[in-house]
Amino acid sequence: MKLFGLDITRGSDTVPAAARVEPEVTAAAETSGTKSPAPWFSDVGFGAGRSTKYLPRVTPQRSEQHGTVFACCNNLAGDLAKVPLKLYQRDHNGQDVRVRDHPATYLLNTESAPGVPGSVTRFALIYPWALRGNSYAYGPRDGGGELEMIEIIQQDHCTPLKAGRARFYDFKDGADVQRRAPSRSMVHLRYMALDGWTGRSPIQVASESMGLAMKGQETAARSLSGAHAKAYLKMADQYEDDEDRKRNERRIKEQLTSPDADGIPIIGPEDDIKSLDLTAADQELLSNRKFDREMIAAAYRMPPSKLQMLEYGVKANGEQQAIDYLTDCLFHWSVLAEGMFSMAILTRAEREAGMFLRHDFGALLQTTIKEQTEALNKAVGGPFLTPNEARKKAGEKPVDGGDELNPAPNMTRDDSNKSKDKDA
């Protein structure tokens, strides 16, 4: 029926809605995660990308297999771990006074965690720091704010988190307890952190050059291990079937490659073996690996003499080589490590009071007994040191009357005789 020109029907007369037809699914959507990331995941900065698909991806585990990378990281970690990391306090006169009664001194040099020496902990922190650009350790504190221990954690299983300007870390401690600790309870070493927190390693920044070095090492290994063709065998086509031909191929190959064979294969009258030597391109590739060593050493500021790269000659004075290594390489890394150790281990009140950590590199420049004796003798007769101060540096006990400075040689004249002559 119609009312005011409109069609009015009963509810039972309504037209049923058409059934919804879903589109046919032809392929599964691509997913990206940490297990199998898509290429765009690396392009936006979440990993060491590569400019060409023909270069191997540069990762810490892959780069560690390069001998030069391992030597650089091992030298840095070993030399910074074997010298004491001492705590000083700068007084109002500007003098640095050694602080001995502090938990940081014991934890960094004696025992950092139950059963773990302090030098081992520092090595385990500096090595991944140089290799990965980041390294982590757990430093819990008691109710009074005193540091209890410095515990190394699994570097691959620590996840930094950000909440505003605050930083937190998810990790599993030595007791297999999952924790989320603030930055105040962590020791986080980071290198080349442009934002102050996200560290980058030299091999990550120079990923393309490192990829070339990895590719060169991989190619050289294949060339020398026999993955490339060493020779080719020309066989006569006089076999009844393919099985006989393959059987003869295996027999000749075993005679050529077996270590128990005498190296004299038995072949047919029409068979021929041609040897293939390394091509000029392969030989040039092997020689260019020297450049890879120099490039990696420069990235870590490592002098060639520390990597046994002696083909360009070395300085005649070994002491001068140690000084160059100290000033050009170790000071660069040690200053960064000392600053981050101080921020993580010392409280703000202690830092404001003038406390700081510093490596004692005297062990790297250890003098001989003759040089030490001559230097102390000149210092005492200078005068610069009292006899007891010099004896203390030499490990000897003080003597009576040794706390006074000896007068300089040109100030030891005796004027008593002249005064007696004038009186006469």
From TrEMBL:
InterPro entries: Phage/GTA_portal, Portal_HK97. Signal peptide: none annotated. It holds the Pfam family Phage_portal. Residues 238-264, 380-424 are annotated as: Disordered. Coiled coil: none annotated. Residues 244-254, 389-400, 412-424 have a biased composition (Basic and acidic residues). NCBIfam families: portal_HK97. This is Phage portal protein.
